């Protein structure tokens, strides 16, 4: 091939601009303790993490991809590598390869929690508590003023496994062996991504995560209202009791049963009348106090949707602490509870387009690190959407669309003594949009080092 130094990732320069304004990767790097020292250290932790995060954002999901990608000077520029051509590498075999290869990635991912400076190879240790704080800190930084209301969305999903990974179990609902990560989002902001074995129920660990997140939020914004929102898989006494004890509101799906069906029987009969006349779906909403016979400690407000469809009756229920005068039954169900569907889009975006399901190492700890990489890549793209795409036709675009239209641009690279010149393809069809996004980012202040 005689095209010179070229790349299909020219738009990745936008990720560099976002990082300079948010410091997301830089903050991620502070969540790892680096026990390496001496002349043998050629890649800083920040460069390693930037290489992995930008690689995921650009569509390279596997660690072995970096054995080929490490030679590209453009990707070295994205992570701030001072020697983008790799001319000054210690080993002759690495010359011309500015970035880290697969073996370095293996040492990073497989470092045990107890590793110290005396370890022979694996010396970069993840601090889980620090990355837990980072996720909420990024949320704070994006909101100069405290929101009056915060909705925390909880959900669990399957992460299919195809080997004998630690924590591998068959899950009857999904019909295959998988892990069961827990996600907590606030709007578009990722606050928790906890990898768990799939032999646990959806609620496992949720109260502990909520305690941590709510305490951090209230430490910064003590006056705001916090609402926990989740589907029926999380409808357990433990989470509702915790919310009540800590002044947190909740709206959680409730699985239907024969008692609930009887309670909404009158509303269902009212819904059948318009359906019989028009043949169109009909809904009637009702609210009532309800308590289970054994598991609940007290009566709570339940909102019922009596719905009639062509296939028959479809009752749905939500239990909530929110009062009728603030949230009437229909508005609470249709606007507040159904709004949780947006979180499912965010999970899909992370799993399908940012490869959160590439948890193929043997151990839960290293797979958790991979999940963190995916989540930080999501935060970087979300910051690009929030800061750069605001006011454009792609203000609500998903990660895959952003990647294909803004990041995947043919580019030619020329390197001189003082500068790296990147020339984008003249036939690029979204040049106007790219210029607008770049201008938006330029108006955002750069962080001081």
What proportion of the residues is helical, as a percent range? 25-40%
| Low-pLDDT residue intervals, each spanning 5 or more residues | none
Strand % is 15-25%
Q: End-to-end distance, in Å?
A: 40 Å
Based on CA atoms alone, the radius of gyration comes out at 25 Å
> How many strands appear in the DSSP assignment?
17
Report the sheet with the most strands, covering strand number, pairing sense and barrel closure. Answer: 9 strands, mixed
- CATH topology of the largest domain: the name is Transposase Inhibitor Protein From Tn5, Chain A, domain 1
Tally of individual domains: 2
Structural class of the helix and strand makeup? alpha+beta
Distinct helical segment count: 16
Shape: globular
Write the layout of secondary structure elements.
Elements lengths: L5 E2 L5 H10 L1 H6 L2 E3 L10 H13 L8 H4 L3 H6 L23 H8 L14 E3 L1 H14 L7 E8 L2 E2 L8 E3 L4 E4 L2 E5 L2 E6 L11 H15 L4 E6 L6 H9 L3 E6 L3 H6 L1 H14 L3 E9 L9 E10 L2 E2 L2 E5 L8 H9 L3 H13 L10 H25 L10 H9 L3 E5 L4 E5 L6 H12 L7
Parallel strand pairs: 4-10, 10-11
Antiparallel strand pairs: 1-16, 2-3, 4-8, 5-7, 6-7, 8-9, 11-15, 12-13, 13-14, 13-15, 16-17
Helix pairs in contact: 1-14, 1-16, 3-14, 7-8
